[in-house]
Amino acid sequence: MQSLSARRFRPAHFRNQHFRRCNIHNPLTEGHRQYMRPKLKISRTSRRPAQPRRELDLKILELTAKGKLKEIEHLLSESERILVRNVLLKRPKTYAQIARIRDREVNTIYSASYRLLDRLKRWESGQEFKRTRGREKGKPLEGRLVKRIKKIIAERIAKGETLEEIKKNAKLNEIQCKLLDIYVLPEQRITLKEAARLTGRKKAGVMSALRQMENNLLGKNIDYRVERYLKLTDDELTEKIRSTGAKTRTELSQSDARLKMAAKQRGLLNGIIISKHQKDLRAALNNALKERKLDDVLASLTDLEKAIINNLLAKKPLSREDLAKLHTISVLDIRRAEKILTKKLKGEEITLNDLEKLRKSVKELGDETIVRLRAQMTDREIAILERRVNREKPDSSKDVGQSFLISRERIRHAQIALYHKLENYKAAGNFELPEHLKDAFFA
To answer: Which of 55, 172, 221, 332 is the most interior residue, by most CB within 10 Å?
Structure first.
């Protein structure tokens, strides 16, 4: 055995090998160094299983020699034909080369080879060799589900029903009706991805809606517990809802989900179970009717506030969402109008936001004065007047700010500054910011 001094003067790679194996203190390096164990050699049997290429090649050569391949050649897909031709070449290409030529992924070619081998084995065992469900390039594939829906609709139309009657009788929702019009019925069909984009859903959501549509058309999706409630009159159904003692929709759903569904279909849910703000508004309206103050308040109400009162007094009141759609405004605007209306009916002081204050100031000054003052206004102030004050549906401060490449906060500051300028003009006849506010706003 060699001494340590003899080993020390060996070449570096020999020394490192020795110390890596022995895992001892290396005198040429600092301290005790731990070395990783060498990698184990992988035997051929433990590697990834072989691809079916060799087996497929032998199968194709065998069928070609027997002359059987010509019988099924017309039933092969384009990818499968390329695989067969490749086997018969003197120097066959690899699957990677085929994928590169076909502009596909290698996994796609491997999948095609697996499918072809499986089909050939089944055909040899006596099963029928069918054509694959291929499609022309750019033409969407018509699935079995769409074919079934088409067949059901064709049968119902043959019985004398129109398309609108089918939609109504099957109780198809808005998404299902849209899918029927743009995806199922047209001859020039679009792809599933395009249908998902047009309906604002994911592809899985579109497929789910199509399955639900099929069940509705077949009448399989009828919930007889809901049908039992729908046989009741409106008054009986209302009494049934009130007997549950539910104050919110969540509580009603927890007590009886079918009852909630029936009330929603009838449109009674909005009239019975309401939010806290709507409850306060109703209480204020009832007090105003009892004290006969409503006539005095009506003169100061806007058209939207009058519409809210009429909706509350209706037998079947609309929901906030439906009311917002009717007046082409947002639900948030309806809520704000309800709060202001509640304060007006109670006789409380109303606090206006910045835009409402500006609108009130512009209205008091009149059109002639505003036209005269436009010469002294900045571009931002003119944009605020045109795009936010004078419009029924004002642009957001963010949209106005983007046109000037500034933030919405700067636009809000300019809006408040314009209000103070108009107030100063009314008080002192001077269209400028008051002295005590000049430092508070941006120039």
So the answer is: 172
Contact 216, 200 (CB under 8 A): no
Contact 273, 247 (CB under 8 A): yes
Domain that holds residue 212: 144-218
Does any domain span residue 226? no
Residue with tokens 């109303």: 350
Do 358 and 433 reside in the same domain of the chain? yes
Q: Whose CA is closest to 172, among 230, 217, 208, 227?
A: 217
Q: 301 and 334 share a domain?
A: yes
Gap between the Cα atoms of 264 and 92, Å rounded: 67
The pLDDT tens digits for 113-161 are 888 888 888 888 888 877 665 544 444 446 788 888 888 899 988 988 8
- Indicate the pTM of the whole model: 0.35
Distance CA 57, CA 86 (A): 9
Q: CA angle, 281 as apex, 275 and 282 as ends, to 5°?
A: 90
